[in-house]
Amino acid sequence: MPDINVRDVTKRYGRITAIDQLNLNIRDGEYFTLLGPSGCGKTTLLRSIAGLVVPDEGEVYIGGRPVTELPPEDRGIGFVFQHFEIFPFMTVLENVAYGPQMRGWDIDYTEKRVYEALEVANLLERADTYPRDLGAPGLQRCGIARALATGARLLLFDEPMGSMDPKDKRQFRYELRKIVKDQGLTAVHVTHDQEEAMVISDRIAVMRRGRIMQVGTPLELYYEPNNIFVANFVGEIDFLDGFVVDNSAEGCVIEVRGGFLISTADSTKKRGDRVVIGIRRENLRVQLGRKEGEGRIPGKVKRSVFVGPYVRHYIDLENEYSIAVKEPSGRVKTISSGQEVTVSLPLRDTLVFDYPENLEDEMALE
Predict the structure, then answer these.
(1) Cβ-based burial of 42 (10 A; exposed 0-12, middle 13-18, buried ≥19)
(2) What is the pLDDT of residues 302-321, one digit of tens each?
């Protein structure tokens, strides 16, 4: 199984630097995702690994072998695109057989590889079907089977579920991961969909402006983001800023605008430090009426939005911040626009960051 090493890779398009001195290691057998907003460089990085883009600087290694100058067909990869790229005039079987035939493999070996790939992709019964008769998941399975039939041990997915409706997408991401894991492959998956990345990945690299902001497991990125951008991009979160007024080995107390005190479990900050605290919306609690006490901030409900399994309450706090609370829809059924409420902030699940030079820029999701 191939590992991938990207060393000091830079790619420019005129004055735009798509990826900037980027370093990354992807392990053997790993399902790895490049996650970030549009234009962050994730597709350029994927195409550099594939050989479809040649870096201006740096080197790419696959399985310990330098491949920066190798054409795509010599890298032992399978590339699966968002828009399927399936030949419409060929059956599923003919599409899957196309790669081995172009490589000049003998008929018996080609047939063996093709039928193995069709079985893995759950397409044996659709082998004689034309693409027009397949839905989006079937078309993408055909693309995966075509890549597998070439013997590729490394699969590169560029927004592979971008053309699917939400229901198909939720089902297909489990199928996709199972194929990769059952076959012992290495996969690199590009997406801007954070939920998709969290569900499907062993590890994720969060990218921004051509750089990697953090690499970690889904749990690490969610509970231990190392900067404000990652915290803001992964999950739903709101931020308040303030100053540390007390600290100990158990944590610190932060005073935010309006004189409200918030206790946190972060023991690394010192008294007087200016900080930003991040609170995941599902960790907040809302109560009717005005309540006093540490970790509580009164406010007024601007609007409540029902989204099936949960409700989002958008609240203007008394200290002029706005915040959103995400609660299971069965927990609070009586809150409505205009009501006075109190938002309670959690002790253990509050993230604390040093105040950056430009907070607005750090919070921008671009």
Answers:
(1) buried
(2) 998 888 888 899 999 998 89
Tell me how long the chain is: 366
| pLDDT for residue 332 | 56
Write the pLDDT tens digit of every residue in 89-132. Answer: 989 898 888 888 878 788 888 888 888 888 888 888 888 999 88
Q: Dihedral through CA 144, CA 149, CA 153, CA 156, nearest 10?
A: -30
Query: HSE-up of 178 (CA within 13 Å, CB side)?
Result: 9
Domain residue spans of the chain: 4-230, 236-363
Q: How many CB atoms lie within 10 A of CB 303?
A: 11
Give the CA-trace dihedral at 353, 357, 361, 365, to 10 degrees: -20
CATH number belonging to the domain at 4-230, selected among 1.10.760.10, 3.40.718.10, 3.40.50.300, 3.40.50.720: 3.40.50.300
Structure tokens at 270: 């010192």
147 CB burial (10 A radius; 0-12, 13-18, 19+): buried
Q: Which fold has domain 236-363?
A: OB fold (Dihydrolipoamide Acetyltransferase, E2P) (2.40.50)
Task: Name the residue type at position 107.
Answer: I
- Number of C-beta neighbours around residue 224 at 10 A: 13
- Tens-place pLDDT, residues 173-221: 888 898 889 888 899 999 999 999 999 999 999 999 999 999 999 999 9
Q: Give this prediction's pTM.
A: 0.89
Domains 4-230 and 236-363 share a fold: no
